[in-house]
Amino acid sequence: MPPRAPSCPFVPPRAPLWGLARSKGVWYGLYELENKGNWDIYSFHINSTVTGRYATTLITSRVVNRMERPEEIEFHVRIPKNAFISNFKMLIDGQIYDGIVKGKQEATQQYTEAVSRGQSAGIVSSVGRTLETFKTSVTVASHQKVTFELTYEELLRRRLGKYELQIYARPMQPVADFKIDVLIEEEAGINFLEVKGGLSTKSLANAVTKTLSTKQAWVYFYPTVAQQKLCDSCGEEGMNGDLVIVYDVNRDNSLGEITEANGYFVHHFAPAHLSRIPKNVVFMIDQSGSMHGRKMHQTREALLHILGDLAEDDYFGLITFNGKVSHWKRELLQANTNNVEAAKVFTESIRDRGSTNINEAVLSGAQMLNQNPRNGLASLLILLTDGDPTTGVTNLEEIQSNVREAINKKFPLYCLGFGHDVNFEFLEKMALENSGVARRIYADSDADQQLKGFYEEVATPLLTDVLMVYAGGNNLTQTKFSQYYNGSEIVVAGQITDNNLEAFIPTVVAISGSTRVEYSKGNGNVLSAEGISESRLSRVWAYLTVKQLLDKELQLRGDEREKVRNETLELSLKYGFVTPHTSMVVTKPEGEDVQVINKPKEKNPGEAGKAGIPVMHYDTPHMYDIGSVGGRGVELHDMGSHRNVPRGGGVTEVPKHQMFVLKAENQTLQLCYQLDASLSLKLLQDPDRELSVKGTLDSSTGRGFRKVGIQYKTEVQMEIDTNTITVRHGQTVNNFTWTDELFTLPSVSLRTLPNEADISVGDMRLVVLRHSVNGVKFLWPVLRQIPSGDGVGGLLAIKPITYEETRPSKLNIRGKTVSSSRSSVWDHSVRSSPLLDCWLVPARSALGEDVSSFLAPDP
Q1: Given the DSSP bridges, would you call strands 616-620 and 623-626 parallel, antiparallel or unpaired?
Q2: How many domains does the chain have?
Q3: Taking burial as the number of CB atoms within 10 A of a residue's CB, which of 262, 476, 676, 808 is the most buried?
Q4: CATH code of the domain containing 607
Q5: pTM as predicted
Q6: Among candidates 773, 775, 770, which has minimal Cα distance to 757?
């Protein structure tokens, strides 16, 4: 093998995208290098499972070196900032290379030893607004393949009444086999489900399908190669953007949802139907010279909007500060129309000048709240600043001490740090010490929207002085919360002492206005371990504990801080989390880098950062991290064999029939119908494209399909059974087994995996799943993307339907009353084949026409 080039050799780019750094004579290019055909990503899958708001996401990228020489191949993905990487591996030529989480000191030692042997290494994580970048590379022999697998975990945070799972994809090229599969399981029931983000725009919206049942939801994103160039931020280099899955769960005015398994519990508390509490709020606005220009303009715009949203029974105050502090009014005023309009006039007059006296500003705000106490109101302070204190008291520890003493745990302080010059760690510590949070406001064109978005999160207090009590529980995460806001959620995890459920008694005590309220085990809590694994709950507990220990460490000094640091390290190592105290050592083939993957930290990149260019922060030679940088909705849930549940109980198998389900819009239960298992069916007909898909049901078992056939024009035929996949193209015949292979023709691609065949023809995408039940194999075709056009028909192309329950066991479908009965079916359109409830109706009522319209010759 020829001598290996440096990991990131300097290649003069046509247009620099990031920047360049140099250390000890070695150039490391921070450019998004183009893939000039040297290697090919032939498969890119993202699988995310969310159970009880805890998301585990696996990214799998399969790449091949097309060249006649060894090539360095890069794996580059972005993950949410709140997530912890928990696993990484590479598979090269049958050999697995694992990432191993170690303490930072031990990892650094291993790294240093690698450097001493002449190997290069790098910390390759960066910080963005909501995402971090993970990047690594490895040299791959000619025509050899490499598989990268990265797993990360995060607890989804409820904000403004919804959870958001963000999945980012930028594979740097169109990928023939690209998939995102998301499964959401919520014991409380799913209230709504939406899909948004840049990857759901333009024709890519047709590549998204979603399924919603009572407690489960699935989202599939299967874009074709052509579609991967057509979203708002897509192009010839493929997709560049995110897919955001938005949902919420059902709630009532109770203790909430408590899930337990094998000694661990997780409590989600967000009671509904509470009355809002009026608030006292003081805004402290930095008007120093550094706020000049757009920052000041955006701050005024946001404040004008916020003032307009105040409720009339709220009270508010405005303080502006630079070198001195100015009060709009010395007392809090009620937010009536006259006072709000006067405050808006004052806001329009705010101008930037002078230095920054943060100490006096916050103490003045605390004094206003202390001097205007009102029973039944929630009080809060909101500080907005873009810089360090430069006048008055400038010692950070002294300011923090003064603020702690002035607030004295009576109300929360929220600190908003505007831009990159601000000392964010100082603001974060000051907020945490006073029951609040710090938020960085990025100095972008939407900064005013960021400010308004934060205010909306705290605009409607519902409870104050919330105390979560768990008799019979131990090792609890945070249990005291100053306020609970509308649209948010309180999450507590812990262990059940001796796993004694009888002695485990959860209680929540809080203040609603001026009234003490109590939620206890007797008024509606749920204790359930259904569908939740023991390891999942313990990982939620560990995730929350590590996050809160990191916050606690920020507030401590000396021996106490060291003790908390050791606790964090021990827990991070036990659960394999990459945190600020651990690193993942990525060992590669002999002669390759040993890379150390670190959790990045928010940093202030100074002047370069303001220009949008990352700044290098060196820890050891060559070791760096990058600072902050500013279907048409048609689904057919195809079902496998079903069981009929009669009123008297018991399960009766229905022989020689196959069950199908048609999506019912805005309904908890879907519609299901059965067909004779000896039929051959027209699954898809597209005359404009000369495309047809047919399937033969398995009459011998009554389970699924035994054969699926595809005809495209006169040129391509595919026949799929449980053993072989045959492709005929002209006179050429290719046979494939259910293994990992990729086959392409013009406008046609076939990707096979052990139990899945993924077929694309133009803008149609069909997945054929192979299931095995009690040793019996059968097929199930799933239309992931319906082709565009008015002439498209077939069983899989039937549009979603609406129905109305008119009386017991009677439904109104398409204007006709039909008899129905409750049934349950196994959904084989999903790999896990979950059991779903449905309304069983006659096939003609579900299809809208006679079954004979869907019959086809045996494929």
Answers
A1: antiparallel
A2: 4
A3: 476
A4: 2.60.40
A5: 0.76
A6: 770
